[in-house]
Hints:
This protein is α/β, with parallel strands linked by helices. It folds into 3 domains: 5-135, Rossmann fold, CATH 3.40.50; 140-240, Beta-Lactamase (2-Layer Sandwich), CATH 3.30.450.20; 267-316, no CATH class. Helices cover 43% and strands 21% of the residues. The protein has a 5-stranded parallel beta sheet, sandwiched between helices. A 5-stranded antiparallel beta sheet has the order 7-6-10-9-8, sandwiched between helices. Strands 11-12 form a two-stranded antiparallel ribbon. The radius of gyration is 39 Å and the shape is rod-shaped. The chain starts with a strand and ends with a helix.
Amino acid sequence: MAKQKILIADDEIIVAKELERRLTKLGYEVTGIASSGDEANAMTAQAAPDLMMMDIKLRGEMSSVGTGERRRYGKIPVVFMIAEADEANLPPASVNDPYDYVVKPGTDRELRANIELALRKQGAANAVHEIEDHFFSASIDMLCHLDFDGHFKRLNPAWERTLGFTVEELMSRPFIEFVHPDDRERTLKQNTLVRGGGKALAFENRYLCKDGSFRWFHWNAASDSADRVIYSMARDITAAKQAEEEREKLVRELQAALAEVNSLREILPICSYCRKIRDDENYWHTVENYISRHTSTRFSHSICPSCMATEFESQAR
């Protein structure tokens, strides 16, 4: 079984060397010793340790707590080492979990317990992240992370399938450049509202496709002011919008047809003898001609039983 790799970050070299000896004795592999926050970040990127042991007062431009926060985000847990006198100056619990601290020098048992607890908890967190990543990638809806500067930071594959642009192309330009010009003003207003702590619920706008067409999106979004990011979900509702437009067109056509029918319900001047109808310009028309001019009705001709008896049977006799 491979040894767990640990990076030590402590600017007291004697203390760091002693910790290295103890960790090696406990069966861990020490990947290196960093003497500053910046060096710890660089060594983490190079060696990819499973865990970092860091002095809480590590010197350097970057504070150790800040470094720890970044490493946790990078899926590497941090166990802080503190002197007894420093216990009153611990960061708030919201910054790091209680198991993240071990009082120097600590017993080997305490050291191992804190390391194993941190590794197990991070393992569980990584499993959750994997599930979240799978959901993010498999979603048929468009999911994205948008920073407060207006650029996409993360997009799932549904974006590329829907718009035709690659993820790289979408992330290379401000998001507003992909929004339909007629929708940009209200989209920016909605974006400002969400960045201020509000939410976007059922917001709709149009997005540009690579072929030059536009598709309608239905949005829900909320922001995280601490990370300065907006988490959003968009659903392609173009088909529904087209169906709605077709329905509205049909309603308009039916209303127009009804208006034509209603126009025939008015009083029409008709000749009592020849049965012609007079129009508004004082011209007389046959019934067929008048109806054809004022409606879309077409006629087919036949003979009714009465006319058949009058016109044909009488002649036969």
